[in-house]
Design goal:
heterodimer; A: 475 residues; mainly alpha; 2 strands; B: 457 residues; 3% strand
């Protein structure tokens, strides 16, 4: 039997394949390693695999073509999203090493890598099947990962995520069916047909598709699962989820609004999404105020941050996409950095998740506190961080696209968020420590991860590398 | 030449280095801090109007890290370096090293603000300079709530500044515009952009009714830091009105001048009246600041050339005397452990040097001829009158009379009168404290006698 695929097709999914194979290698290597001892081999293998995939992926940048009969796109846009996902994967796997490798580490690492494969497929997906395949691969792994610690909240988290996410997938796949019914094609590129604007089937299908997307992006009103799931999931999984699900879904959403919408339909169809983004910026930031758990806090923060990114995409201007990518990259580093700090002060009971444990951190661990301050300032959008420049780019994008009301909501949301972020900063720099806490030993991997993220966030302010020529690839 | 860049980065680097190095002796910290601040002073004079620039953004608008003094910012930057040097020299707070480091970083970020020739850099430094003060209030302030109020008010202003900057950049195509004599911005958007800038500037100055963060902040900060904040950071808004409002959005400044003048006039009278009844010495100076800055705002929005020059003179003069007043009240509080007018009195007999210094600063604040305050006030009043605004001049004259009352009351209640029984007798100003405050007093006299260098266009 000869497969109908060319070399170019295989080359297109080579990075994804490398990650998938790495996961297999991790599992197999685990068979031969000593039980009981803390094992770092899975982490090292996973890092090597993601780095190799990252290098391969980077070489695709600039080679733009369709693979698998237009189902998967290679080049700029997908490359950038793919790299963000790989970075997030590497940054999250490292955290397993920081909170103390559990006996199940090899399995968890492997599942995480496979989930990353799903997200990478979403980054390049250009037809409905590929989107579904990527999304489910990503989500199935996450259901398992969320519940993979022996903790009541973790089981709750996994179950909640499974049920709610499946509901969203239901919407998504029903939307796919209707879209296929309306267009007779599963390729996004075939949707660019002005005649569809008068086809109610297309409207309903696209609407249900967007409901699924909004759920996965955790925008208001489909955001309520985020803090609960984030809180219950193990720290590395929360870090992983907070970036990769958003990056993968954003890639799909961006490709849909830039490349698949019939002309004249975009404004009306997407208005509910922009409204949801606007409300998310307020609701997410208000939700943060009352949190005393870092994972919940960052869950709500993610709701608002994804709102900011959507402001850049509103109006679907070419520059808007670049700014969205810039902000998403910065957001990945902010979140990974913050979780790295949390992991560095966590043991197996994840002490780093509770904000109370940050009290007086500046005394015990001045460098970790400084790094955390940078991440929180970046999330709040204060200089000298990429969050500041990202905000100004997003604001300028909304000015040129005319969505000024979103800019106003962004400003209001940011003002609210400041209090929540500064509360953590204040706790870290508080003078009086409560009871004496045991200082966690130096954790090289988590410290290195936090340091790299902090340096990059500051450097990105001064060298704002927004990936150029992204747009031709969206199609 | 990069000297201007070094002047900005040196204090920041020195501050960070102080943190990183092991805890030092208080003397060493103060010495190093003063030396750094003095060095920036020298560098600023040496650099003159030299500029330094490197590109930052090319899209969506042109932006650059562009630094260099304008004829206005040159003086404010010098004022800043001088105030910082003086403030650090006589710092007496717990954890001196951290405090000096914060003050140096504050100086660096504020130098960045005043020397920025790019709006985006201006906005960046605007937010940056809030952080050291926030930590100052947090760690040395009287109540944590104050630091929140300070931060949230000013950050909200910073956000509208950011939005206005983004809109300005997109429409104008470049933010590299400060002091460049470019064409002003006009169009349907321009009034909104001006509104965004103006809100930020009014919060920062502050102007009634956005001033409520200011009195507790000034009262709560330790004296050396409040000397710098009240003297220079409060000028960031006024400086913004000068180089962004008047220079780039001139027509709108003119159109909305009456509204801002009303706010300025209310601040003038309100601040003066409240200062008259306060019993906390620092709050008296804080409210007097509100009053004086209201006058400068009136001068700037009148857009009369003479008034604008007077505004610069008064900006510098106010910086000098409020820094001196706050430092002296700090010395006083160190000695007596209170700054309530009700509990103090008759200190002048035992502390003649402290009394003398406070007298000069207070007289400058109330506008005695021969001192800098008078020069600024007079030129402003003439200019505003020339511009055709008569009622603000009348309001200002009333406020100046009230100013004499509250400043004399401040001096009187602290230094004159019978000695209070239960106030312990402490030593007079040490030579170091005297040395720290004397450059400010000398500059007050110097500018009062000859304000000409500041008046050159």
């Amino acid at each position: 039997v000869t497969l109908p695929f060319t070399n170019a097709d295989w080359w297109a999914i080579l990075p994804v394949s490398v990650v998938a194979v790495t996961a297999l290698v991790v599992l197999i290597s685990d068979l031969f390693s000593d039980r009981g001892e803390p094992r770092y081999l899975p982490i090292i293998l996973a890092l090597a695999g993601t780095i190799a995939a990252g290098i391969l992926l980077a070489r695709q940048f600039g080679h733009n073509y369709d693979a698998f009969f237009g189902g998967f796109m290679v080049g700029g846009f997908a490359t950038v999203f793919g790299e963000i996902i790989l970075i997030a994967t590497a940054g999250s796997v490292i955290l397993y090493g920081a909170i103390g490798p559990t006996p199940r580490i090899a399995g968890m690492t492997a599942i995480m890598l496979w989930s990353a494969c799903g997200a990478m497929l979403m980054a390049g997906a250009a037809n409905l099947m590929m989107i579904f395949l990527g999304l489910e691969l990503l989500s199935l792994g996450l259901y398992a990962l969320c519940g993979a610690v022996d903790r009541k909240t973790a089981r709750e988290s996994a179950l909640k995520y499974l049920i709610l996410s499946s509901t969203a997938t239901g919407f998504l796949i029903f939307g796919f069916a209707l879209l296929f019914g309306a267009t007779g094609s599963i390729r996004l590129a075939d949707f660019v047909n002005p005649a569809l604007a008068s086809n109610p089937l297309f409207w309903i299908g696209a609407g249900m598709f967007l409901v699924g997307i909004v759920f996965k992006l955790s925008l208001v009103p489909f955001h309520t699962w985020t803090p609960d799931v984030f809180e219950g999931a193990p720290l590395p999984v929360t870090a992983f989820m907070s970036v990769t699900t958003k990056a993968g879904t954003l890639a799909v959403f961006a490709r849909f609004i830039y490349a698949a919408l019939p002309s004249g339909i975009g404004g009306a169809l997407l208005i509910p999404v922009w409204i949801a983004a606007g409300i998310s910026m307020i609701a997410g930031n208000v939700g943060m105020l009352a949190q005393n758990d870092l994972k919940r806090l960052l869950g709500y923060s993610g709701v608002a941050q994804i709102g900011y990114i959507l402001v850049a995409l509103a109006g679907a201007t070419p520059l808007g996409l670049r700014y969205a990518l810039y902000y998403l990259t910065a957001y990945a580093f902010m979140n990974l950095g913050a979780f790295a700090v949390a992991a560095a002060i966590s043991g197996e009971r994840e002490e780093g998740a509770s904000i109370a444990n940050y009290r007086g951190l500046a005394r015990r661990r001045p460098w970790l506190a400084a790094a955390m301050t940078i991440f929180l300032l970046a999330l709040a959008g204060l200089p000298p961080t990429a969050g500041f420049l990202g905000k100004i780019l997003i604001l300028s994008s909304s000015v040129s696209s005319g969505y000024l009301w979103l800019a106003a909501l962004l400003i209001a949301g940011t003002a609210i968020s400041l209090y929540a972020y500064a509360k953590v900063i204040r706790a870290m720099y508080e003078r009086e420590e409560g009871e004496v806490r045991d200082v966690r030993p130096f954790v090289p991997l988590a410290w290195a991860s936090a340091a790299i993220c902090a340096v990059l966030i500051v450097a990105m302010t001064f060298y704002p590398l927004t990936p150029s020529n992204v747009l031709p690839l969206v199609r | 030449m990069a000297l201007v860049l070094i002047a900005i980065l040196l204090p920041i680097a020195a501050g960070a280095l102080l943190y990183a190095l092991p805890r030092r002796d208080r003397i060493v910290c103060r010495l190093a801090g003063t030396a750094v601040a003095a060095a920036t002073f020298g560098m600023l004079i040496r650099a003159g109007d030299a500029q330094w620039s490197v590109g930052w953004l090319s899209r969506p608008f042109h932006a650059a890290f562009h630094f260099g003094a304008t004829p206005i910012s040159f003086w404010i930057a010098l004022l800043l370096a001088l105030c910082t040097a003086c403030a650090i020299a006589s710092t007496r707070v717990p954890r001196t090293r951290d405090f000096v480091a914060l003050l140096l970083m504050l100086e660096g970020t504020m130098l960045g603000l005043f020397l920025a020739r790019d709006l985006l850099v201006f906005a960046l430094c605007w937010d940056l300079m809030l952080i050291p003060v926030f930590f100052g209030l947090m760690n040395w302030g009287e109540h944590p709530a104050t630091s929140w109020r300070y931060f949230i008010y000013n950050f909200a202003g910073g956000l509208t500044l950011l939005l206005a900057t983004a809109a300005f950049g997109v429409i104008y195509g470049s933010t590299d515009v400060i002091g460049s004599n470019g064409a002003p911005l006009v169009g349907a958007w321009a009034p909104w952009i001006y509104a965004g800038f103006a809100f930020a500037f009014l919060v920062k100055t502050p102007v009634w009714p956005l001033h409520t963060w200011m009195p507790p902040t000034y009262a709560g900060l330790p004296a050396p830091m409040v000397a710098v904040v009240a003297a220079v950071q409060s000028k960031a808004g006024l400086y913004g009105f000068l180089v962004i409002g008047v220079a780039l959005l001139g027509t709108y400044v003119h159109d909305y001048a009456p509204a801002l003048m009303v706010l300025g006039a209310i601040s003038l009278i309100y601040g003066a009246v409240i200062a008259l009844v306060q019993t906390d010495a620092k709050r008296i100076v804080a409210y007097s600041s509100l009053s004086h800055l209201g006058l400068i705002l009136i001068a700037i929005v009148s857009e009369n050339p003479l008034a604008l020059r007077g505004a610069l003179v008064y900006i510098v003069a106010h910086g000098l005397f409020s820094a001196a007043l706050f430092m002296l009240l700090g010395y006083l509080e160190d000695r007596e452990e209170t700054r309530s007018l009700l509990r103090l009195g008759g200190l002048g007999w035992k502390n003649p040097r402290l009394a003398g210094a406070l007298c000069i600063a207070a007289l400058a604040a109330l506008g005695l001829p021969g001192l800098a305050g008078f020069a600024g006030e007079l030129i402003i009043l003439i200019g505003v009158y020339q511009a055709g605004y008569v009622w603000p001049v009348i309001v200002a004259l009333i406020a100046i009379i009230i100013a004499s009352a509250y400043m004399i009351r401040l001096y009187q209640d602290l230094m004159n009168g019978p000695e209070v029984e239960d106030v312990p007798v402490r030593a007079d100003l040490s030579w170091l404290e005297g040395l720290a405050v004397s450059p400010l007093l000398a500059a007050l006299v110097l500018i009062g006698v000859d304000p000409a260098p500041l008046l050159r266009p």
